[in-house]
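Example 3.2
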Amino acid sequence: MKKNRNPKSFITKPVYPGGLKAMRAFIKENLKYPEDARKNKIHGSVYCKYQVNYQGKVVKTRIISGIGYGCDEEAIRLINQFKFHYTKPPRKIKVTYHKSIRINFSLPKEKSKSEKQSLKINYSVKEKSKNSYNYTINI
């Protein structure tokens, strides 16, 4: 059974601005797939734990389970860019929070040969005698 928490509690948790949805959007936008992992076709999840200090900054990050090939370092780089805020600033006590996250690395889908080579050109030719010709070229 869940306890009802006193709204005047002096310890508040740090939250990511915009919530979990904004955090996922930030990861998706800023994730750079490592070239070494792309060459070796490596994909999977990197599970990390990190600490958020009383100012809302990530101060320590460590890998719990990684996949290597530069993905672990990229996950740490992303997590260190997180900025949290408090709904109420902590009082005189300085608390460090421990959080965890899983960052997924999935290979970008490659385009098929037909998608890569598909080029469509449309143009029309009008003559003085009011005849017009339409051409479509598929390459």
